[in-house]
Design brief:
By secondary structure, this protein is α+β, with helices and mostly antiparallel strands. Helices cover 28% and strands 21% of the residues. The strands form 4 sheets. The protein has a 7-stranded mixed β-sheet, sandwiched between helices. Strands 1-11-2-3-5-6 form a 6-stranded antiparallel β-sheet, sandwiched between helices. Strand 2 and strand 3 form a beta hairpin. Helix 6 crosses helix 12. The radius of gyration is 25 Å and the shape is elongated. The N terminus is likely disordered.
Length: 454
């Protein structure tokens, strides 16, 4: 039998029968998939097999839908980029708000989204590029070239060690994995009647302790998980229109810098509802950044006033209070809600997980009820993005709920998947039902704590 022909990295010979083997480890593949949602990766192009020429890249990767490029350099860095818009050599400038570049920092891929208002690339016959800033297989050579620019806020030293020599470049086709359960794993009535029923239950809720007029619910979570967005969403439902009273967004550092208590009115001229949502600065991995655990302890016990501005390097001291009066049960926190982004559960670092564990230990010591709000379920699962009613038949969302339960040490029944309002201009029934159901559960959990506290 004739031996298989060997191919030069720069060759253009036919490679149809050459088997492709990914360099990514299974753990690295899982981490990248987690950053993209419920997807699978299929290797389309491997530069050491197909060649570093732009023509070879386009022959393998054009009109393949969303793709992920993964490059490896001789210094051991693994980095690349994702685009949801397929390559087509259309000659057009491409915009793609979902595009990001990444670099593995240890076991975790650190992703950088494209800055607003920038093109992803000129869709021509050239080599793959991102933001007209980062070019792979530059000049048909095993090289990455950074042209500079503002499309991405990158540090090439951190991203690839300023070593432009590539040892390999791979491109993967991104495909959605959709699997469903035979029966819903939780039952929800997605009806207008159910929404009305939930709103009435919430309006008429009376805390089990007479001295407590409104239940205080504390939202805790990483930066960008959706704490402020949850308040905005609940406020929107009761105002019957989309609102944005609390500052929210997707910045790398917390947009919330103060402790805020947000009462909600039943309509513009309506009475205050029997709960207050308390928003905090986002949690961050590094020490001296984000919300401090000592501040959380002071919040839980009712010492920190509304609009207190956090200082990560100087935790709040209760003895700074002007008043020495004892704190009433009304001023304390009655339920703690951990807000976790469904798309980033598998990317949670050990440092952040330990921070959450420390907070849980403190909350446990005070006997306060705890619940998890798993946000952005639509971004995590294409099935749910298409139809929110598919939430509880999605096998992927079920596995994410179980993963949150395991990582945070809470029962599965205490993990509530939701979709906040973020880009919508109008309210939507299914979203309302899901959010109101979560809020009603929080009120029930708060009553469990109050019942034990009195």
């Amino acid at each position: 039998m004739r031996k298989a022909k060997m191919y030069s990295a720069f060759g253009a010979a036919s490679t149809h029968n050459v088997p492709l083997t990914s360099i990514l480890t299974e753990e690295q593949r899982e981490q990248l998939c987690a950053s993209l949602g419920n997807v699978k990766l299929s290797l389309l192009y491997k530069a050491s097999v197909h060649g570093y020429k732009a023509s070879a890249f386009h022959q393998r990767c054009d009109r393949q839908g969303p793709t992920l490029l993964v490059a490896y350099n001789r210094s051991g860095y693994i980095f690349g980029g994702y685009t949801s818009v397929d390559y087509a050599q259309s000659g057009q400038y491409i915009t793609d708000k979902d595009t990001f570049i990444f670099s593995f920092q240890g076991k975790i891929p650190v992703c950088i989204k494209i800055n607003h208002g920038h093109y992803v690339r000129l869709d021509d016959a050239g080599v793959p590029s991102f933001g007209q800033q980062l070019y792979f297989c530059y000049k048909n050579q095993p090289v990455v070239y950074s042209l500079g620019g503002n499309a991405f806020s990158i540090n090439t030293a951190a991203m690839y060690g300023n070593d432009p020599q590539l040892s390999e470049c791979e491109v993967y086709k991104i495909s959605s994995q959709v699997s469903t359960e035979e029966k819903p794993w939780r039952n929800v009535l997605w009806t207008a009647e159910r929404k009305d029923e939930l709103m009435e239950m919430i309006r008429n809720h009376k805390p089990v302790v007479a001295s407590v007029s409104r239940v205080r619910i504390l939202m805790i979570g990483p930066v960008g998980a959706g704490k402020s967005s949850f308040f905005n969403s609940i406020n929107s439902i009761f105002m019957s229109r989309i609102t944005s009273k609390a500052m929210s967004g997707s910045a790398a550092t917390s947009l919330t810098t103060q402790f805020r208590t947000y009462p909600v009115k039943d309509g513009r001229e309506g009475k205050l509802l029997p709960f207050v949502l308390c928003d905090t600065m986002g949690l961050e991995e590094q020490s001296g950044a984000g919300l401090d655990i000592e501040d959380i302890s002071s919040i839980l016990q009712g010492h920190i006033p509304d609009r207190y501005k956090f200082n990560p390097t100087t935790p709040f001291k209760p003895d700074e209070q002007k008043s020495s009066r004892p704190v009433s049960l009304q001023e304390k926190i009655h339920c703690v809600v951990y807000v976790i982004d469904a798309t980033k559960i598998s990317l949670m670092s050990d440092k952040l997980q330990e921070k959450l564990a420390s907070i849980r230990r403190k909350v446990n010591s005070l006997g306060i009820s705890q619940i998890v709000l798993m946000t952005k379920v639509d971004e995590a699962c294409p099935l749910v993005e298409e139809n929110l009613q598919s939430l509880y038949v999605s096998s992927y969302i079920k596995t994410k709920v179980q993963e949150v339960s395991s990582r945070l040490g809470v029962p599965v029944s205490c993990v509530l998947p939701v979709k906040n309002y973020s880009q919508e201009l109008e309210l939507e029934l299914n979203c309302d039902v899901l959010l109101l159901s979560a809020l009603q559960q929080m009120l029930n959990f708060a009553d469990d704590y109050l019942d034990d506290a009195c």
